[in-house]
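Morning. Coffee machine broken again, so started the prediction first thing and wrote up yesterday's gels while waiting. Chain of 544 residues, entered below exactly as on the submission form.
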Amino acid sequence: MKVYQLLADALVAQGVDTVFGLLGDANMFLVSDLVARHGVRFVAARNENAAVMMADGYARATGRCPVATVTQGPGLAVAGAALTIARQARTPLVLVAGDTPPGDPQHVQSFPQQPFALATAGEMVPVVAAANVARDVATAFRLARSAPGPVVLNVPIDLQDEDVADDVPAPVAVPVAVAATRRPGPAAAHPDDVAMLAALLQQAERPVVLAGRGAETAAAAVRELADRSGAVLATTLMAGGLFAGHPYCLGVAGGLARPLTRRVLGEADLVVAFGAGLNRWTADHGRLFGQARVVCVDIDPAALGDRWPVDVPVVGDAEMVASAVSAALPVISRPQWRSAELARQVAAADAFAGLEPLQAADRIDPRAFIRVCARRLPPQRTTVVGVGHFGGWPNLLLDSPATDRALIAPWEFGSIGVGLPFAVGAAVGRPDRPVVAFEGDGSLLTGLGELDTLARTRAAVLLIVLDDSAYGAEVRKLRPRGVDPSLARFPERDLAAVARALGVPAWTVTDEAGADAAFDAVLPVTGPALLHVRVHPDAVQEHF
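Came back before lunch.
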């Protein structure tokens, strides 16, 4: 047995059945062995950065710790942005990276992989001996699952080809329960924190209970606390839809809050957040909550005030804290806050009310297109929204179920080009439901080769490209300051034809009738498809 075969055994022992990657000298025999001997599915990307993004999308859609693999030197270097995104999102992920022989510093692909891995992923486990392979693989997965975050497992190419001694024990399979991503265990809040939070809710006149994705399993307890305390409800973008149907749920808070939500939250004097990664976008750079006092409840102490100031941090499990505070509160009636008129306004709210679409002969207003999406897209789907000006439209105007990891918005590093690879990874991880991904023309063109990956995987992904023939965010920022935005504009390209050339069925949309016709052709989504939507370049999203 060779070391690369022992490495394959150790990966499979950790529950690995899918690997994303790109072949090179320092990982091709490992991948071949995983496929031939273990039946592992290998999703071959066209770019190492995209391969790691696919693994990240897989993790976000499934909650499992995936594996990606790249070769030595440039293979790892190209994946730097994706590793940084995963690190900032705290995505559990193991990247198996080959490395050049330590005794050959003049190797053409040699570079300092350890400091690079630490600067991007944040963790690296070097494999230096055959006898330690199983231990090192287990260490990498333990770090990824428990921190959580990405880990680079670094394996030199010369070591991989060594023979394994007969006395090296075989890896032991990890039980499924252990293989799951592990977060800090349930923790009740300190009784003093419960009493303080109950007192704050009693004293407040206009309280808001805000839930993030970390409170998804605590939705019932958080809703009960809001009802008992007379608070209105809101969610972060990632938890949008968590309280859908509640008469006093205002929807998504943040820069993408709708007008009614923005008005009501601006009047709040207390915001109590559960399991929410509060940041500048949740608070719309400080414009949203006005003078409200902000309380944040999170099981992870490091998350409290990490990205936005918190007046009162409370460490504890969302469900346990919400239930304890409810038990300490009398039922509070706030007819001036939870009014019949507010309930009427919530029920009557229409994201497209007053829309007067911009007109052009061969361009559709993106808001008018999203209105068609709201009517036609299947409610049971995974929605992926890439990074860019275009992302504001689906996030502001489309309702998406929050349950079961149904929304993926990989914006942590502000890197464009994420929509397509994350969509592929999500579809591979959750083949039971279609993926609808929104991407911009500029973003798509940074990783056009992954259309080939989409075609080869035959994943059920509908990729919607909102094409304004520009870097829309840059145009939006340059023009108001009197700077010529032509540097951020580009010629029109037939992206549908490119997609078809790479094996993805595609349609071009320039008006609402064409949008309906395209949806008639692609729905239900059972395989790859692309809608090239030529959008009006003058439609501006103020908050994104």
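The first strand starts at residue 18 and ends at 21. Going to sketch it on the whiteboard this afternoon.
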